[in-house]
Write a structure and sequence with these properties.
14 helices, alpha/beta, Rossmann fold, 17% strand, 16 strands, six-stranded parallel β-sheet
Length: 400
């Protein structure tokens, strides 16, 4: 099958959407499919490598790292039209999506779109539920998803949100997957020691891991504010925050204001192929975000055997079972109480770690890719069946 995957974020912005596209692309190729990726570059130049077409783009100062492309007549689009994809699977709603739809229209390829991000909450945070914001989001989504024959969402939460926008397109849940082998590997004591030394973290420190884009919607500041209470009970705790983003300076300033700099490390950017090392340095993974649809970092942490401690959110359904492979909390008191249970009971941590590994097996990349492929085949079958019916109808009309 010829599959065109489309995203506005790829190598220049390696976020969750880019990782999903990368996982699908790698999995499809291993299965023998002909896969190409259409995306935008991190600058005003275009290039193509390993079946990935990067169109020139320009910075749009709406949000850090947000870029657009207006390369509607670019030769790469002509190449993709001549290639004639069987399926166009779009993972974003901006420039790349618009350009990919021209390819689909030209080749009569069905369009599938995946909804990864609730942009109303992303852009307006606590004001996302205002009537005017919801109305604008609903109207913009009707435009963005026009032409799609199916929308996939990664979780029950995402489906509920999408249905709430009254976007009248068929949709189905297909959970995200990750390449488990990249996380199912051992880390030696020497590797852990080297990483601790790199960030000047003492050997006796108990490390709690946050791996996320440092942006307001991730709510990392809440965990920093809760952390001093944990330090009162266990001064050996250390918070390792891995990632980059526009909220970095504010979070560093908050850490200093709280007087916890000696127990907090901001690593900056971590190469995707190295993230497993950071997870495996910790004893638990923390998240205060209620923004996620189906976070890959949760799945990665589980695959590294880390219990999750996350703020209560519908996206955790099927991922985190409270008291089994981690804890769910609603407020500071509950967070501290459950964290102390975990920290003070090594046997419980080991048990939760085993359950975390068990749960991660549900989210492998092969199952993820096969579920998507089944959807492609079903859509192509219906399309061809309808096409055959149309031909028969025309033939019958001619015979009369």
């Amino acid at each position: 099958m010829k599959i065109l995957l489309v995203t506005d974020a790829y190598s220049h912005l390696m976020n969750g959407v880019a990782m999903v596209v990368s996982t699908l692309s790698e999995s499809y190729r291993k299965m023998g499919h002909d896969v190409r990726v259409l995306t935008i570059s991190g600058d005003c130049k275009s290039h193509c490598e390993n079946g990935v077409y990067y169109l020139p783009s320009y910075n749009l100062p709406i949000y850090p790292d947000f870029r657009i492309s207006i390369a509607h007549g670019h030769p790469y689009l002509k190449i993709l039209k001549e290639w004639k994809p069987d399926i166009v699977h779009i993972h974003s709603e901006a420039s790349a999506s618009i350009l990919a739809k021209s390819v689909a229209k030209s080749t009569n390829a069905p369009i599938i779109m995946t909804w990864h991000t609730d942009y109303a909450k992303f852009a307006f945070h606590e004001y996302h539920s205002l009537a005017a914001v919801e109305f604008a989001a609903r109207e913009l989504m009707k435009i963005a998803y026009h032409g799609a024959c199916m929308i996939t969402v990664p979780s029950f939460k995402a489906k509920k949100l999408l249905d709430g926008y009254s976007v009248k397109f068929p949709n189905t849940i297909i959970p995200n997957g990750i390449s488990l082998d990249k996380f199912y590997r051992d880390v030696t004591d020497e590797e852990k020691k080297a990483l601790r030394e790199k960030y000047n973290i003492a050997e006796d420190k108990k490390i709690l891991v946050i791996l996320a884009r440092l942006s307001p919607e991730k709510n990392i500041g809440e965990l920093l504010e809760y952390f001093p209470e944990l330090l009162k009970h266990d001064p050996k705790l250390h918070l390792l925050i891995a990632g980059i983003g526009p909220d970095k300076e504010r979070l560093e300033s908050l850490s200093s204001k709280l007087g916890i700099d000696d127990n907090v490390t901001f690593t900056g950017f971590v190469q995707p192929e190295d993230t497993y090392l950071y997870y495996k340095l910790g004893i638990a993974f923390l998240s205060a975000s209620t923004f996620e649809m189906h976070s890959l970092t949760y799945l990665e942490a589980l695959a590294c055997g880390l219990p999750l401690v996350c703020r209560n959110d519908l996206c955790l359904k099927g991922v985190l079972d409270d008291g089994v492979n981690g804890y769910i909390y609603d407020d500071k008191d509950e967070f501290v109480e459950k964290m102390l249970k975990l920290l003070n009971n090594e046997s419980l941590r080991k048990q939760m770690s085993e359950k975390a590994l068990e749960r991660s097996a549900l989210f492998g990349n092969e199952a993820f890719a096969k579920n998507m492929l089944n959807l492609y085949y079903n859509i192509l079958y219906v399309k061809n069946r309808n096409y055959r019916k149309k031909l028969m109808s025309l033939k019958n009309k001619d015979n009369k």
